[in-house]
Amino acid sequence: MYTMIPFNARREFSRHRPAFPFDDRFFRSFFDLNDRMGNMGFRVDIHDEETHYLLEAELPGVPQDQIQITADHDTLTITADIQSQRKSENACYSERRMGHVSRTFNLDGIDENAITAAYENGVLTVTLPKEKPAKPAGQRRIPIGGADQG
Known about the structure:
Layout: H1 9-16, H2 25-31, H3 33-37, E1 44-48, E2 52-58, E3 67-72, E4 75-83, E5 98-106, E6 116-120, E7 123-129
Antiparallel strand pairs: 1-2, 2-7, 3-4, 4-5, 6-7
């Protein structure tokens, strides 16, 4: 029965060898996405393109109508409701999950009004256009006020 539970190489390896300097819960959380997000998150990739950022979020098996994207006060929030059904009540081990997941991202330097999104094959793709830098005003003469002006 124990062979049906996924093998965790790091834990098994550390049982037979001396502990690594960074092999404790605090340091593992920086490298292990499951420890950091638990069951309440999902994985994302963010690519820096020339004119925009491309955010790809893994949401396999989530119907499109169960995903919400909101932009508010310089933050982008992606939420989803995962409804996986169990096929058997007498399962020995299950990694399927259900519930509400959410991730929030900073939108500094993003044109919030031009954000677009698409969902295909379990991957949500959000295009985040970069704001165009404001052009500096042309040369202008700045008056100098004197002490006698009031």
